[in-house]
Amino acid sequence: MLTWIIIAVLLSALAALALAVRTVLVRLPALRRAVLALHRRQVEADRLVVQAQRLQAGVERLERSLTVARADRSG
C-alpha cells in the first residue's frame, strides 16, 4: 500500500514538472523574438550615442569658433 502511495506522489511530481517544462518550452520562441528585438534596440541606441557624441563635438567646435569670432570683433 505504501509503495502505491509513493508511486502516486512521484508520478504527480513528474506530471507537475512536465507541465512546468511545457509552459517554458511553449514560451521560448516569443522570448527569443523579444531578445532579438532588445538586441536590435541596443545596437540602435549605441549608434545614437555615437551620433550624439559627434554632434556634441561639433557644437563645441562651433562654440569655440564663435568665441574666437566675438573676441576678434571686440578686440
Question: Topology of this protein?
Answer:
Blueprint: H1 2-74
User: What percentage of residues falls in helices of 4 or more residues?
Assistant: over 70%
| Quaternary organization | single chain
Number of strands: 0
**Overall geometric form:** rod-shaped
Q: Identify low-pLDDT runs.
A: none
Structural class by helix and strand composition: mainly alpha
What is the ordering of alpha helices and beta strands?
H
| Largest beta-sheet details | none
Helix count? 1
Amino-to-carboxy terminus distance? 106 Å
Your description of this structure?
The protein has 75 residues and is mostly helical. The protein is built from 1 helix and no strands. The chain has one helix at 2-74. It is rod-shaped. The model has no long low-confidence stretch (mean pLDDT 95).
Short description:
This protein is an all-alpha fold and 75 residues long.
Keywords for this entry:
75 residues, 0% strand, 1 helix, rod-shaped, mainly alpha
